[in-house]
Request: fold
Amino acid sequence: MTVATRQKLDRDGQLEEMNIVTKKIINYTKKELRGLINNENPDIIINTLAAGSVRANKDNIDTIKYINSELPSSIAEILKIRDHKKKRLMITFGSTAEFEGYDNESFIETKTAPKPVSDYAIAKTQGYERLVDKIKESNILNLHLVLGSVYGGDEHKSRLIPKIITSLTSKTELTILESGNKRDYVNINDIVDAISFGVRRFRCNEFKPDGVSKKLLCVTGYRKSNTEILDLMAKILNKNKDHIEIKQGLKRKTTGGSLNYCPNDFEDFIGKKVIEFNEMSGKAMYRVSVERD
Reply:
């Protein structure tokens, strides 16, 4: 249950009176989790904890099931026992991997039913369903953000875009797998805006979920392959890319590799056009990497 810091959560300074506590609960026992929630008695919980089986990030299947499928509803159950009358907001996160069973080029929007295939996607889908079922007949509301490929901010150096920036600027070796699959890259600032708007509306009694939960598909509607990201960053930085090796990766020939995501609900919620990954956002990524190093 890692909550964003005040600086990251509220770039406009409108939530500065909030008491924000950040806890990493990945190794918490149920007793410790219950103690944390009972002590803090929070109005708002932002659960960013996830476990995956995507690419090099392959967690144990039991861990994947517990963190993605069981933990959100366990948190909700503790909240209900702590004070079932108190109005609360839980912000949780899904993944566009939950649509991986659809044919390539399928049109995906917020209301599209998930079609998960992998252990990770199945667990994420089940986790949301269990949470919604758990918070029925309670005062807990949910904002569920289904994320595309998030980039930007203090992004970990092991992820694709930071690795490309490092390789281009320092001429270090890098191998990129290119399958032809395309991902929808969504900027972290747009995700922060969605969280901030959700919190503000909840605190002003203006949060209007569909039943007990408001689900948003957080995407841009634009897709890029790995080599397209490389080409764009090489152009932005005016760097030679010939030292970077391109290898053929596993292509999803029929399903899930390239889907058409609709950003309309997401843009309506945050009140602006989402940030496309282009030269401007690529330059911003580079500036952050320079400042960090």
Remarks:
- The longest helix spans residues 61-82.
- Residues 52 and 268 are 29 Å apart (CA to CA).
- Residues 6-151+187-221+256-275 form a domain with the Rossmann fold fold (CATH 3.40.50.720).
- The radius of gyration is 20 Å.
